[in-house]
Automatic annotation (TrEMBL):
Pfam families: Phos_pyr_kin (PF08543), ThiN (PF10120). GO terms for cellular component: cytosol. This is Phosphomethylpyrimidine kinase. Residues 384-422 are annotated as: Disordered. GO terms for molecular function: ATP binding; hydroxymethylpyrimidine kinase activity; phosphomethylpyrimidine kinase activity. CDD domains: HMPP_kinase (cd01169). InterPro entries: Aldolase_II/adducin_N_sf, HMP/HMP-P_kinase_dom, PM/HMP-P_kinase-1, Ribokinase-like, ThiN. Residues 272-445 form the Thiamine-phosphate synthase ThiN domain. GO terms for biological process: thiamine biosynthetic process.
Length: 453
């Protein structure tokens, strides 16, 4: 039977936060979402125009209707708006026989308080009946007077909130400055910090709702709390990184990015196979390096080698032409896939790549075809493939730092290929890049034809 989640929160007409974000997040996790709307807001990607709080009897009627019919697996709260609503939900929460996640919506993005002091005090009763609280740094300060600046103060704040009776506290680090976001989960027994790179975007409206809803959905599906929190944090980071470019404001969190990627895996693998078939039919032996060739395709929102399809065992030369050693599978490329993923950091439309040999003939062919080639210093591509930093390294001896794939960030349009001339004991290679499989195949076939000619 499909798990059921309940969200008790406000409605966002812009779709980025509130009930709309909660239900989209639950659906993305395979959970059937139900709702009790506390307030209706008129808002969009640029801000809130107006809001209207629903009567208490209507809020109660919604909660009664849902809990009286559905086998709710977990619930969450969002915007509760008034003291009376907070107290009403707290009364219900004491009777819930399922986990409750409380996202204490108290402070606007501008820093303004959203609730009267009585409502803030009423939250203590609600937290006492909750499984998890998910305050951001501003809300933590309202609840505890602790200013969160690092892991130690996050732990201090979490321990203070535990005194309300809540089972666990996730002190969110999104509002704390820094290149990395640190979210700290505090329970009476353990403290764990989850860390990931900060995504450089303003499209974070509704991120708190989305995170709490993702945790709720995972709890409803039977996950352990710590696992649910970890998975939800990863889900949110991905949803923000690949946000929707909608509206005139910063955009919206992409709640369905993971579903889209899952749906694209089979077509991506098929596209890689189609390129391989064309290369085999054309016998591009002249392009295959001694280490073998590989063709790689990444899903639209690929984050790791596991999201890239490639020929298992590569493509090698034989007496009768070229031959892929095995079939196309995800997670099998340890060299070309990392280079493609690194290039996608600057140009996320790049989805396909292949490596080929480099010598004077290939160089002449590249020049003849007028391909835009970015030359990287010896070893740069290998460094990327082995998981080294994408940053251009600094030097202490006064020499110019070598060029890495990070040089792509300086280009408005990505090059057609990356060139590494190699070094002693390492073969020179060209990595051909493309946004689609047809372009990749055409570039490789044109290069092969020019080399043969």
């Amino acid at each position: 039977m499909r798990p059921v989640g309940l969200t008790i929160a406000g409605s966002d007409s812009g779709g980025g936060a509130g009930i709309q974000a909660d239900l989209a997040t639950m659906a993305a996790h395979g959970v059937f979402g139900t709702s009790a709307i506390t307030a209706v807001t008129a808002q969009h990607t640029r801000g809130v125009e107006s809001s209207h709080v629903l009567p208490l009897e209507e809020i109660r009627a919604q909660i009664d209707a849902v809990t009286g019919d559905f086998d709710v697996g977990a619930a969450k709260t969002g915007m509760l708006a008034t003291t009376e609503i907070v107290q009403t939900v707290a009364d219900y929460a004491r009777e819930f026989d399922f986990p409750l996640v409380v996202d204490p919506v108290m402070v606007a993005t501008s820093g303004d308080r959203l609730l009267e002091p009585e409502a803030e005090r009423a939250y203590e009763d609600l937290l006492g009946a909750a499984t998890l609280a998910t305050p951001n740094a501003d809300e933590v300060e309202v609840l505890t007077d602790v200013t969160v600046t690092d892991e130690a103060t996050a732990r201090e704040a979490g321990e203070a909130i535990l005194e309300t009776g809540v089972d666990a506290v996730l002190v969110k680090g999104g509002h704390v400055p820094g290149e990395r976001v640190r979210d700290t989960l505090v329970t009476s027994e353990t403290v764990r910090t989850f860390e990931h790179p900060r995504v450089d975007t303003d499209a974070t409206h509704g991120s708190g709702c989305t995170l709490a809803a993702a945790i709720t959905a995972r709890l409803a599906a039977g996950e352990h709390l710590e696992s649910a929190v970890e998975g939800a944090i990863d889900f949110l980071a991905h949803a923000i990184r690949y946000h929707y470019d909608v509206g005139e404001g910063p955009g919206a969190v992409n709640h369905f990015v993971d579903l889209r990627d899952d749906a694209s895996r089979e077509p991506t693998a098929e596209a890689v196979q189609a390129v391989v078939d064309r290369l085999v039919d054309a016998d591009v032996s002249a392009l295959v390096p001694e280490v073998g060739m590989n063709v790689v395709g990444a899903t639209p929102s690929a984050e790791s080698v596991a999201d890239a399809a490639a020929v298992e065992g590569r493509i090698t030369r034989t007496l009768s032409g070229i031959n892929p050693n095995r079939g196309v599978r995800f997670g099998t490329s340890s060299s070309v896939a990392p280079i493609l993923l690194a290039a996608r950091e600057s140009h996320p439309t790049l989805r396909f790549a292949a490596n080929c040999r480099f010598d004077a003939d290939v160089e002449a062919a590249l020049d003849s075809l007028e391909r835009d080639v970015l030359e990287v210093d010896a070893g740069a591509v290998d460094d990327i493939a082995s998981g080294s930093s994408l940053e251009t390294p600094s030097t202490d001896d006064g020499t110019e730092p070598r060029t890495t794939v990070s040089s792509l960030a300086d280009r408005e349009v990505p090059p057609a290929a990356l060139l590494d001339r190699g070094d002693v004991g390492r073969e020179a290679t060209v990595t051909v890049l493309a946004t689609d499989p047809e372009t990749l195949a055409e570039r490789l076939l044109a290069l092969d034809s020019e080399v043969d000619r």
